[in-house]
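From the pipeline queue, job 12 of 40. The input is one protein chain; the requested action is below.

Action: predict structure.
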Amino acid sequence: MEVTVGKKTDTLKFNYKALFNANKDYSTYDANNNNMGDGATNLFTRILTGDTAVIIDIIKVAGGFGKISDDDLFDAVDEITEDGAKIDEVLAELKDELKNSGFFLKSITAQRDAVAEALPIVKSKEQTDEIKQQVTAIERILKLLNENL
């Protein structure tokens, strides 16, 4: 996908550098503040849930733009989505780009498998309201990933 940000046009690249940046900038952290390496999966899941703000985050990790202003990013999103008229098409194209990238697919698949492995452990805990919410969220994410990979 080609994107113009400010005065620079670049093709988004879903290479190792983009994966590294996604995992660096968009991963969750555990209780010990360790990066969980799930940034690529988080971006993919956000696409699947229709989070339009993910477009900006993907431009940041997959584009070669360096420092860019929010206004330039907003203008870029307006342009590629034709002011929102093609938002679903853009999200679908980004989903396909992530799935077709060997780096992103491997990372997302590994995270999906790790989450599937962890689900029984979470289910075996005392079912407080917080644990029940975690189980529901994990099951929803797994379903989305399984249906879209």
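Job complete. The radius of gyration is 17 Å.
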